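Continuing the series of single-chain predictions for the mutant panel. This is the parent chain; the variants come on the following pages.
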Amino acid sequence: MIKTEGRGFWELIKISLPFFVLSTGYAVLVLLLEEKFGDHIFLKSSQIGSVFGLAVAFFLGFRMNSAYDRWWEARKIFGELTNNARSFSAKIYTYVLSPNQLVLVQEKEAKKAASDLIDLTCAYINQFKSEIKDVPHPISNAPTEQLFKDYNVDERNKVSNEVLIASATKIEALFAAKATIEKSDLMQHINRFYEIQGKAERIKNTPFLKIYSAFTKATVILYVLMIPFIIGDIDIGGEESYLEYLSIPLFALVSTLFLTINKLANLHGAPLETDKTSVPIDQICERIIGNCQELKIKIRSLK
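Parent structure:
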């Protein structure tokens, strides 16, 4: 079995188990009512359940597809962030450490400039991650605070934008007039950071339609409540055989299926939250920062 499927199975159990317990309790209640008042409490027409169930299934399928599209778009956004940050850092390492492309600076100053730009990139990644989690002004460490002070990052404003402005200003001041290609290339990466940030904020600030989600939930719950009455009693072998109690797990399984699909759709519709089904923002950002720090170490090791 694929490892991700194994982990996903246990997460699925955690989500669906409460639904199964509740559905089992409801099925037992309905069966007890049937035993007391007779089979006439069940709806005898299976056509109602077939038509209604088919409609709910199609409705849930569309809901799940729409939610997955949001999740996949969010994952692509952080994939773009990874590629752009790595490429940006690599080009800083290459361009800034080429003396013929810079305004007259010493080698030591060039190394510090490259190191600072990479630090600003890491600070941006951290800040971007925090803002997605609705933490606009996270607590920074001493080196980051000093970096912000050196580059006039105003923490009263949107910090991620301030960091990008600081990086763009440094690039503009660092490169000579003849290095237009290199400067333009790095500026394009700055623009891509803005684009990525805008895409992520669009998903974050535009939740799945609340009325649509509420209507889906109400429809599923209504159908689940009707399932025992639609399926009816299972009289295999007569009343004395007790095989009619097989209807309880049947009711519970069908109900759990519909309720779990609706729950998964809700979770996938919010891909930038902190749920198990959300995009792993922390791991992705930590990996990006780790890659950037590797280049910074390489810059320090240069003679």
